[in-house]
Structures are given as C-alpha cells and as structure tokens.
C-alpha cells in the first residue's frame, strides 16, 4: 500500500491524501487552504481521473473545498461521507462559491457533485475495490469521522480532525478497540505547550469577559466557523442568558450559521444523547432559541453596528478570511468598548492570526483599519490538544507507523518526538509518497 500527501503536510489546510493498494486508489479528503491566497492540493489532473472514490472525514473547507474543482475537471466517481457531512457540504460549498467565486468551477461540475454522494453510517463497513472502509465518530463536528481502511494486509486509521473531549454537542472520538498498523493523525495542537484548560474554566472566563463588555455598553463579535464552533458557542450563550449569568441582549446570527443550525437540528441523532433527551423531553429547543436574531435582511448589519444597545454577534468567517465578520470588524474596530473573541484556530497568514499577534492596524479590502477594540482568544477548540493527540497514539492497537500532518511544522515535529520512541514516525513533505 502506498500513501501520498498532496496537502496538509507541514501546514494546516488542503487536506488530500492518496491511498493506493495497486488495485484501488482513493482520496482521503479534498480540501483547500485559505490564507493570503487560496491554495489547492498539489495533485495532477491525470491522477484525479484514476481515483476510484473520495472519502470525506468531515465538512470543513480545508477538507472538502476542492470537490467542486475536481468535479468541474470531469471526475465521475463517488464521494463517500456520513449523512450530516453531505448535507453540510451543500451549505459550505454554496458559501464558498459566493465568497471566493472560483473561476474554474462550472455549474455542471457543481451539479454532478451534488448527485455523486454515497452516504454511509458510522461503524458500517463498505468497500471500494479491494479496500474495506469504516467511519468511526471523531467528535470534531456534526458527522465527523475517523476513516479506517484495510486491504487485508495493511490497516490505516486516518483521524481527519479529531476531538477527544466531550463538548455541548458531541462525545469525544470513539477510540475503543481500534486496531491499525498505520496511523495518519492531525497535529493542529501538537505542540508541547498546547494543553487546554478545562472547558468549564475557559467558558467561565469567556462569559465573565462578555458580561463585562455588555455592561459597559460595548458589543462583542465572535467570528466562528459556520459548522461546529458556531453551534457550540450559540448553545453556550443561550444557556447563560437563560440562567441570568449574562444580561438579556440580542444574539445576532450572521452568515451561513443559521442554515447549519437547521441541519444540526435535523440530525440531532448524531449529537450527544443528553442533547437529544433535552429536546425530546421538554418543550425547549436550544437550536431555535428566541435569544437568537437571524440576520437575513439588507441593512440589518448597519442597524446592528449603529444601535446603542449592547449585543453579541456570532458570525462567519472564523479566521476573518471573508464573510460578514469583516464588515463588523471594519465598523466596530475603532471603539475600545467593543471586543472580538476568537474561539477557533487561526491559521498562519489569516487576519485572525494578525489580530492574535497584536496588530494595531490591518487591511480589510482596500482600507486600513485601526484596531482599538479588545482582542481575546478562548480555546473552545473542536480539536484535541497535545494530551488528546497523545491518547490517540496510545490507544491504537498493533500500531507500527505514524504519519503526522495537518499542523504547523513545529507542532507536527513536536508530536513526532512523542511518537518516535515507539513507532516509525514521519512528518511527511508535500507530494511525498511512502510504502507501508
């Protein structure tokens, strides 16, 4: 079996891995990398024509954003995913097309993509050629999956993006009784110092900070991925407003988040049993809270930034690489009473990372914007921290090889130091190929 890496090597973004048994070729994910410029997997078109299937770990653009391009090149085979991933893809790809307007994506390609899904359930084996494949819950976002593949000789576990901790919506990744000789793991937070505090402590600090801003008459921007962090944050804010911990203010929901919320509600069976019970056994549905104000009319954004009342704005995009978040930041950045709270990973080269690094002036569109509002970061991450990643490596039975990807080089190399004392451990380069 050969493994080739066409993205996510020494970087976060454009995940795209080829598994080739000699008889069957499959891609694990097909993402893009969004930063100062959009980057695509370094895979040749001729090779794409030979792919027997594309298997998706979850619905984030750095794992699925290249699909419209592949199908616009004439790809005709199938994409395999869980049901929520398929449904979320439609929302995220539509948003991507609207914001990025990629020139080489065709209407025919988008149509073919929408009709070439094969939906598979967790823990239900399926085959592509001589590969037996299984999706296992990854705990990252709705429908996210680790991918277990075997050709009868070698067994590979690909984590995709993984979270080992329980959140408001999901249990941690299901790592019970997994046997694989090769692990391909993410390393977003693979550095030695990437140890998260308890989520209860983080959320308490965040809520106190938001309360302080609201009482002082300011507004809080929370840029978030439309899928995953946004739902966790909204349910958290809703709980604290209902309990009286936060003052009762409007929570504005902007971007594609509301569509993603509806998909979460329709697929609540994939969420934690406690959340399912909460909805089924009471009249209160947190996905449809009256505390949420959906921004769906022209001019509403102007009204939000100009109104005197304090408010919370949960909006895309999570890394400030596009979307409504840029409008709110450009209009609210000069006021020191306001605040922006980062709740997700900010990749190198993004505006979000610039703010985290303390930038006092940033470029938004053609304008230079002075940053006077408070900038804070809270690790409400959907990724495992260093301890969680170590536990993934420790819990796989029969492990021999570890490939570490989807992390800045220093993070991947740091995690390698942990794994290489027991296993053959590689931090692959882009376009590298390995025989296992």
Walk me through the topology.
Blueprint: E1 2-5, E2 17-20, E3 25-28, E4 33-34, E5 38-39, H1 45-48, E6 53-55, H2 61-64, H3 67-72, E7 79-81, H4 83-100, H5 107-114, E8 117-119, E9 126-128, E10 131-137, E11 145-150, E12 155-158, E13 182-186, H6 199-215, E14 219-223, H7 229-243, E15 250-254, H8 257-266, H9 273-280, E16 292-294, H10 300-306, E17 311-315, H11 324-332, E18 339-342, H12 351-356, E19 361-364, E20 367-370, E21 374-377, H13 386-395, E22 401-405, H14 409-419, E23 424-426, E24 432-435
Parallel strand pairs: 3-6, 6-7, 7-8, 12-13, 13-22, 14-17, 14-18, 15-16, 15-17, 18-21, 22-23
Antiparallel strand pairs: 1-2, 1-24, 2-3, 4-5, 9-10, 10-11, 11-12, 19-20
Helix pairs in contact: 4-8
Jot down its keywords:
single chain; 436 residues; alpha/beta; Metallo-beta-lactamase, Chain A; Rossmann fold; 14 helices; 24 strands; 31% helix
The strand line-up of the biggest sheet is 8-7-6-3-2-1-24
* Coarse shape: globular
Structural class: alpha/beta
Query: Could you name the CATH topology of the largest domain?
Result: Metallo-beta-lactamase, Chain A
Uncertain residue segments: none
- What is the correct CATH architecture of the largest domain? 4-Layer Sandwich
User: Under the CATH scheme, which class of the largest domain?
Assistant: Alpha Beta
Query: How many H/I helical runs?
Result: 14
Number of domains: 2
Major sheet size, sense and barrel closure: 7 strands, mixed
Termini separation comes to 6 Å
Within CATH, the superfamily of the largest domain carries the name Ribonuclease Z/Hydroxyacylglutathione hydrolase-like
**Radius of gyration, in angstroms, nearest whole number:** 21 Å
Strand percentage: 15-25%
Give the helix proportion (percent range). 25-40%
For the secondary structure, the number of strands is: 24
What integer is the average pLDDT? 95
């Amino acid at each position: 079996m050969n493994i080739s890496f066409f993205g996510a090597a020494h970087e976060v973004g454009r995940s795209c891995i080829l598994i080739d048994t000699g008889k069957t070729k499959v891609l694990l994910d097909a993402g893009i990398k969004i930063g100062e410029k959009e980057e695509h997997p370094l895979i040749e078109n001729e090779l794409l024509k030979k792919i027997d299937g594309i298997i998706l770990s979850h619905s984030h653009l750095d794992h699925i954003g290249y699909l419209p391009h592949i199908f616009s090149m004439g790809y005709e085979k199938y994409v395999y995913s869980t049901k929520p991933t398929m449904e979320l893809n439609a929302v995220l790809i539509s948003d991507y097309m609207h914001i990025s307007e990629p020139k080489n994506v065709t209407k025919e390609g988008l149509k073919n993509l929408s009709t070439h899904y094969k939906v598979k359930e967790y823990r239900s084996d399926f085959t592509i050629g001589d590969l037996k494949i299984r999706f296992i819950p990854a705990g990252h976002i709705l429908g996210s999956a680790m991918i277990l593949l075997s050709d009868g000789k070698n067994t590979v576990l690909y984590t995709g993006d993984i979270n080992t901790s329980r959140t408001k919506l999901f249990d941690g990744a299901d790592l019970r009784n997994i046997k694989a000789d090769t692990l391909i793991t993410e390393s977003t937070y693979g550095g030695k110092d990437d140890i998260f505090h308890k989520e209860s402590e983080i959320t308490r600090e965040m809520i106190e900070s938001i309360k302080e801003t609201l009482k002082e008459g300011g507004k809080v921007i929370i840029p978030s991925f439309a899928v995953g962090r946004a739902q966790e944050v909204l349910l958290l804010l809703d709980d604290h407003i209902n309990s009286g911990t936060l003052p009762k203010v409007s929570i504005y929901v902007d971007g594609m988040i509301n569509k993603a919320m509806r998909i979460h509600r329709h697929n609540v069976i994939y969420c934690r049993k406690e959340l399912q019970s909460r909805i089924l056994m009471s009249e209160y549905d947190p996905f449809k809270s009256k505390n949420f104000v959906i921004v769906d009319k022209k001019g509403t954004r102007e009204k939000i930034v100009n109104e005197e009342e304090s408010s919370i704005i949960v909006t895309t995009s999570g890394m400030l690489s596009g979307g409504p978040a840029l409008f709110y930041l450009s209009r609210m950045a000069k006021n020191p009473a306001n605040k922006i709270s980062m709740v997700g990973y900010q990749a190198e080269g993004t505006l979000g990372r610039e703010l985290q690094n303390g930038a006092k002036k940033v470029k938004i569109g053609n304008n230079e914007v002075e940053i006077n509002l408070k900038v804070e970061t809270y690790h409400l991450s959907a990724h495992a921290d260093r301890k969680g990643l170590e536990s993934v490596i420790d819990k796989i039975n029969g492990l021999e090889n570890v490939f570490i990807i989807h992390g800045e080089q220093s993070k991947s190399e740091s995690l390698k130091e942990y794994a290489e004392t027991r296993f053959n451990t590689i931090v692959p380069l882009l376009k590298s190929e390995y025989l296992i």
